[in-house]
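Hello forum,

I keep getting stuck at the same step: I have a sequence, I want structure tokens, and every attempt I make locally crashes halfway through. Rather than fight my setup again tonight, could one of you with a working pipeline run this one for me? It's a single chain of 206 residues.
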Amino acid sequence: MNYSAAHEVALEKFRACSLEDMARCSGYSIKDNALIIEFLGQHFKIDYPSGNFVPIQASDSELPIAAEILILHYITNLGEPFEVGTLISYKELPGGAIYIKPFNGRAIDPLVRTFGSDPDSLLKVVTYLGGQSNGLGDVGVTFRVFPRIPLALILWRADDEFPASGNILFDASAPSILPTEDFAVLASMVVFGLKRIKATLSEGIA
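Reply #2:
Ran it on my machine without issues. Output:
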């Protein structure tokens, strides 16, 4: 997929917003005329007004353009949504029911493949990222992939009758922060980011 046009549109919106407004509404801090962000265990500064993502630590790898677009969408939403505390599924997002099969294929199925045989490893990875158990399912965890976007990931262990299964839930404030399509991208990135961190923790190099 060619993301160039979407990236340029996101950059234009970034340059049209003030750094102070983006910091206030996103929950990120400002340092040296840049926003300082953490995304799935990696740290970047987003220079203003260029929109360049600069890794802060030597271990931080370059972000794919799809991730940069997603982050730019988040930080340029200058609304101040009130977190509801009620969890909803992807199909409860506007138009989400139409795309639930692709969402499952991009996010839920990889979540179960990666952690379904060892759900406790999901808790280990999310705890490493600053998240915590939420008491849902057999193993349920919640962490903030963005300061204003908590994500709940839930796993049920396999038994004699059913295979392992899972779900990803969002706060009911989600539709006021990002469009539904972005949450499919976000959930997929989160799962594959957790898979990467699981591997590095297993190797003892995270």
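DSSP finds six helices and nine strands in the chain. If your local run keeps crashing, start a new thread with the error log.
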